[in-house]
Amino acid sequence: MALVLVLIMTVVGAAAISLAGRTVVETRIQEVSIDSSQARLAAEAGLEQALKVAPTGPLDGSIDTNTSYSVTDQTTGTSNAIIGPIKSGEIWEINLVGAVGGSVDLYWESSPEGGAARGVYVSVVNPTGITDYAIAPNGFGQGFDSGIISTSQSLSGKVFDYKASFSYTVGTSSAMRVMILGGDTILGFQAGGGGSLAAQIRQKTAVGVVTRGTESVKQGLGYYESVTDQIPSVFGYALYSGTTIVQ
Predict the structure, then answer these.
(1) Taking the CA atoms of the chain, what radius of gyration do you get in angstroms?
(2) Which end of the chain, N or C, is surrounded by fewer C-beta atoms within 10 Å?
(3) Residue whose C-alpha is closest to residue 109's, from 61, 155, 65, 147
(4) pTM of the full structure
């Protein structure tokens, strides 16, 4: 009888230990899930606050005693940049004020996932007028030049399907507007001729942190925008499609 009682107590004890262990694990999983969501919200709050009060600099802050955020700020694109995916008909403007070298090399893909060819419509803005270029691979359509395109070119370790170079006048040309045609694509550009560009892209990275005891959970969030005063793509769409802007 005593042996049976010992066996029963052993089984009950083992079950209790197993249940307690499972409860601790499940509780911790729930805590991590909650902390992860709070850290994400803290990163979003930090990014929104930075865009409001520190659009050109870093920012640190806290939500409560256990939740904080840190936002870093940097500008890129003085030598090269890769952006996108950019939608068909969307325009990206490259700032040429202060640029040196006299040319910009553009890189683009058939599409982010492969497929049909893409073309570019490039406008170089000068005080006396605008110089336009319609560039695309052979077979893209009438009126497009394929003569200046080279294929399978690399930029910052990424291989693009196409590359073309476009000239501008140093000290005179103010911008180069690039419209993607034929579908979405990844766009890359760099200063040609060993030159340099003004900063093109501002990137903010926000990290939210939730601390619980000696452990912490982090969530990150990125945001980038053109440093130049980009014209909303809807205006370019209305200009080149022959339609009107309707609110």
Answers:
(1) 27
(2) C
(3) 155
(4) 0.62
